[in-house]
Amino acid sequence: MTISLRSRHRWFSALQQLAQSIPYPLRGLLLGLLLWSTLTSAWINPDPVWQAFAPESAIAALGKLLFNGTLWPHIGASLQRVAVGLLAAIAVGVPVGLLFGLVPMIERSASGALQFIRMISPLSWMPIAVMAFGIGDLPVYFLLAIAAVWPILLSTSSGTAAVNHKLLLLARSLCATRSETIRRIVIPAIVPQILVGVRLAIGTIWIVLVPAEMLGVSSGLGYFILDTRDRIAYNELTAVLLAIGIIGCALDWSLQFLQKYWQPSR
């Protein structure tokens, strides 16, 4: 009896040490996987349709789609649209944010109208985007850009307004021009804030991407979701949802890496 209790204690201690060695993010993923598997199990949902949404079915379908090359063109198309929409948002948001941060009067004058437009859901622009740009990639680019521009603009504006004024006075005393001051002092100082805005923009753009790709395009993850629904391939649909989550996390982690290792002194 004593040996059995000691054995149980050793097993409990080993399991406790193993649990403590697992990183906290991985613990959450394992817990979510366990919950997902439980909710789609046969003893909770005996309907065979629900078995297509099970983790093992989705992972197997994802591996098959990646191995036979079916999913890669759709991933590439979606990432291309994200890149174009994000670059357009940066091209608009950073200069306007700099202008607002450097000239508060302009920011105060335009804040009401911009706040009104910002509160309109990006997906609400779908009919107007189709009327203006037709069917294809252009309305998708427009929707992604208008969804991503606001966090970049606001982060840039707040970062510019918070730049150390002593540095600006020093540049003025050294007879630096306005463009030199912006290029050599303001922009390097606000890069961390811009990265924060870009990270928020990627999160927003990745959410808007899937419904935006249902505007008549013939490729992309959003289009593929509609295709799997029409084919009643629910295991592939779940696999695409899994791929969307993985790619979104990878994009967010890459921005976290840039934020962590960015050195403003450069």
TrEMBL record:
It is found in: Cell membrane. InterPro entries: MetI-like, MetI-like_sf. Belongs to the binding-protein-dependent transport system permease family. Keywords: Cell membrane, Membrane, Plasmid, Transmembrane, Transmembrane helix, Transport. PANTHER family: ALKANE SULFONATE ABC TRANSPORTER-RELATED, MEMBRANE SUBUNIT, TAURINE TRANSPORT SYSTEM PERMEASE PROTEIN TAUC. PROSITE patterns: ABC_TM1. It is a multi-pass membrane protein. One of its GO terms (cellular component) is plasma membrane. This is ANL55. CDD domains: TM_PBP2 (cd06261). Residues 75-259 form the ABC transmembrane type-1 domain.
